[in-house]
Amino acid sequence: MAIEHRRLGKHGVLVSNICLGTMNFGWHTSEEESFKIMDRALEMGINFFDTADVYGWDVEHGLTEEIIGRWFAQGGGRRDAVVLATKVFNPVSRKANLPEVNSDGRNLSAYKIRKHCEGSLKRLQTDWIDLYQMHHIDLDCPWDETWQAFGSLINQGKVVYVGSSNFAGWHIATACQEASKRGMAGLVSEQSIYHLNNRMVELEVIPACREYGLGFIPWSPLGGGLLGGALEKYETGRRKGEEFERDLAKNRGRLQQYEALCREIGHPPGEVALAWLFHNPVVTAPIIGPRTLEQLESALRATEISLDEAILQRLDEIFPSPGGEAPMAYAW
Fold first, then answer.
1. Average pLDDT, the chain
2. pLDDT tens digits, one per residue of 195-248
3. Which of 72, 157, 167, 222 is an S-S bond match for 227, by CB 3.0 to 4.6 Å?
4. Active site residue 55
């Protein structure tokens, strides 16, 4: 397969089948290494980059966007070569700013969307955001206000497309219906947690994406590292931590079967987990969040893995689906 480009759901823009996630840039990955990862991603043909205004976390919110902005500022056509996605919803506390209840809270008010968009544009050193995503649903803010804010940014040329993240199926349906009332395109994509060990979105989120023509972008494709050879890493002392050990104990039986299967077919567990997503026609592009160049190269190798029906069936037996789509999965 290698890197290929496909439409984002029913929409015209073409994005790579791997989305470069940048969440580690600035607090786990140095700026120098981050630059190398982004340059290598472009060389590979990866044109889809994802970030968020909150990334940078404990160092400072917005730091990751600043790193990407400095990378763009080097020139060489970098900005024009990227379909750039960022997000709004979470707190963005900046050291130079006074406390402010809207920026410091979680919401999708028109005030916050406009303000945070301006902040992201400045940090990213760009005039526009290709895909501006709601990082979470805001159940208390009316859609009239939220869509008016996004519509204004689109009309100003600051945003091209609007997407969602961590939405339920009914949130997607409501958002798209409310946008349609206003003559807007609505959501073009949804980011959800989705991997072999967590397939809950198959019940309602994926069917909603298919019905409304959204691209589907899985985050955490390795399940927080559990699907990346967790047992071997734990036994050799390369991975520790209380939360990791708790998750390992909970999933040990499945992981033993999974890692044995990976050894049998001759591919690393992390690459097999990604390959499973690449074989799923509903998936537009899983988000990978490499800390190193080698992790990026590993994702590229995963695109070359072919999983036949027998292997896919065995993976389904180890990591069962929730039973299909709702309501048939639990009713009739």
1. 95
2. 999 999 999 999 999 999 999 999 999 999 999 999 888 877 666 778 888 888
3. 222
4. yes
pLDDT one-digit tens code per residue, 177-198: 999 999 999 999 999 999 999 9
Q: Residue for token digits 């700013």?
A: 97
Cis? peptide before 327, omega within 30° of 0:
yes
The CATH number of 5-318 is 3.20.20.100
Domain range summary for the chain, segments of one domain joined by +: 5-318
